[in-house]
Specification:
The chain is an alpha/beta fold. The protein folds into 2 domains: about 250 residues, QueA-like (3-Layer(aba) Sandwich); about 80 residues, Thrombin, subunit H (Beta Barrel). The chain contains 7 helices and 17 strands.
């Protein structure tokens, strides 16, 4: 399977640069995963495709303002840091630019000394481990000094940090938002609950590897980045109940999907668990838990396009993307949404 098999033409102007005023005001393309049929709706119509007993699974991770700008101690050279993952206490794995100036022992000052960091080790892919020092609470300092790490294809400044955060975000740890969830408002979630649909929460801290291009020509040779996930027993029970009752499990986003498929046993059952996953889902994969997926439109040749192609078939997905381009849907993080489902199940 060649990476080029997942390419499609996308005009630059269809990449959404700003979130809509109304989160749930985006468009919704509904793709039947079996027939390839496409419907055009608004995101608020998602309730037309949900039924009592279904279980909607959301990722409650919270994006941290992970981009920091500092100065190299002694030379005042400008340094940019991106926090990738917390290794232990105040040691973080980071991406540093320019990396050549930051050898072990280098000290970086942020916010006039509110925060300092010392590079203690260079690890795989040139990432740096940094030991941070500060007085007070790290999260509060980060909130004051850090910026949201928007994807490279978004060039506009984000006016409101909360717009790159789901309304149900709880646990700090992501370097990128689980963007399918950005379409939900508290009112829409309340309507979903009121229909008798269970909402289960899982946590997967999204890493920046989600934006890394696939460099291998053969899809199977690509190695996925690892991300931390957690599922609590109460939430596992909700998902198991839906499966046992013959109802559907509908994942909100590829991150929820990867969490569920990583944590499930061979029978598709879940229990309380946590750990690191580097699961790579591409065509040929047999899904154990999810039946339907709410997601955004993803980058050409990305692992995310491969994941949705595993659920609905590569040709059907690429055909739906071609239609989305013709119909001028908005693409990527702040763009419109897609529901991949068996539409006969929703009637």
């Amino acid at each position: 399977m060649d990476v080029k098999d997942f390419y499609y033409e996308l005009p630059q102007e269809l990449i959404a640069q700003d979130p809509l005023e109304d989160r749930s005001g985006s468009r919704l393309m509904v793709l039947d995963r079996y027939t390839g049929a496409v419907e055009h709706r608004g995101f608020r119509d998602i309730t037309d495709y949900l039924k009592p007993g279904d279980c909607l699974v959301i990722n409650n991770t919270k994006v941290i303002p992970a981009r920091l700008y500092g100065e190299k101690e002694g030379t005042q050279a400008k340094i940019e840091i991106l926090l990738l993952k917390r290794r232990e206490n105040d040691v973080w794995e980071t991406l540093v630019k320019p990396g050549k100036k930051c050898k072990p022992g280098t000290r970086i000052v942020f916010g006039g000394g509110l925060l300092t960091g010392e590079i203690i080790e260079v690890v795989e892919e040139g990432n740096r481990l940094i030991q941070f020092s500060y007085e007070g609470i790290f999260e509060e300092i980060l909130d004051r000094l850090g910026q949201m790490p928007l994807p490279p294809y978004i060039t506009h400044q984000l006016k409101d940090k909360n717009r790159y955060q789901t309304v149900y975000a709880k646990y700090d740890g992501s370097a990128a938002a689980p963007t399918a969830g950005l379409h939900f408002t508290p009112e829409l979630l309340a309507k979903v609950r009121g229909m008798g649909v269970e909402i289960a929460e899982v946590t997967l801290h999204v890493g920046l590897g989600t934006f890394r291009p696939v460099k291998e020509t053969e899809v199977q040779k690509h190695h996925m980045h690892s991300e931390f996930y957690r599922i609590e027993q109460s939430e596992a029970d909700k998902i198991n109940r839906a499966k046992d009752g013959g109802h559907r499990v509908i994942a909100v986003g590829t991150t929820s999907t990867r969490t569920l498929e990583s944590a499930a046993d061979e029978n598709g059952r879940l229990k309380e668990s946590s750990g690191w996953t580097d699961i790579f889902i591409y065509p040929g994969y047999q899904f154990r838990v999810i039946d339907s997926l709410i997601t955004n439109f993803h980058l050409p040749e990305s692992t995310l396009v491969m994941l949705v192609s595993a659920l609905a078939g590569r040709e059907q997905v690429l055909n739906a993307y071609r239609i989305a381009v013709e119909e001028k849907y908005r693409f990527f993080s702040f763009g419109d949404a897609m529901l991949i489902t068996d539409t006969s199940d929703s009637q």
